[in-house]
């Protein structure tokens, strides 16, 4: 670990669920073959880099559960980050940036993009996080840093 990495006090990772089937009910939509591949690609990149003390919070929607399952790590299903979550819900559920260590949120658009905009631009906006993509933020004494953006099509 470098000196700069040691200074980070909180990590927030936003992982949008991978490509999913169309259908009703929305919460029951499963990943497509493409989505399963996307989730596996990002999980393979993420798992060796994920901080040891990371809380993983996952939307109850089937597609988010399947995306998180690609990591093959324990996670908590969190209703507050479901398909109708708000920016406030995501921040409250993750207890970020007060939470020491890392938290990974596996959720949905448009909320994850709005959280990213809030963190980087200071106000929620409709930013797009691609299906299956991961955005990694760090907070070092109140300074928000975007550490990585990983999209499955780049892996």
Describe this structure in words.
The structure is a single chain. This protein has a single domain (9-154), classed as 3-Layer(aba) Sandwich (Rossmann fold), CATH 3.40.50.1240. 30% of the residues lie in helices and 23% in strands. It has five helices and six strands. It has helices at 3-7, 33-46, 62-69, 87-94, 111-121; strands at residues 10-16, 54-58, 76-77, 101-107, 134-140, 143-150. The longest helix is centred in the N-terminal third of the chain and has 14 residues, at 33-46. The model is unreliable at 1-6 (pLDDT under 50).
Q: What characteristics describe this protein?
A:
155 residues; alpha/beta; Rossmann fold; six-stranded mixed beta sheet; 5 helices; globular; disordered N terminus
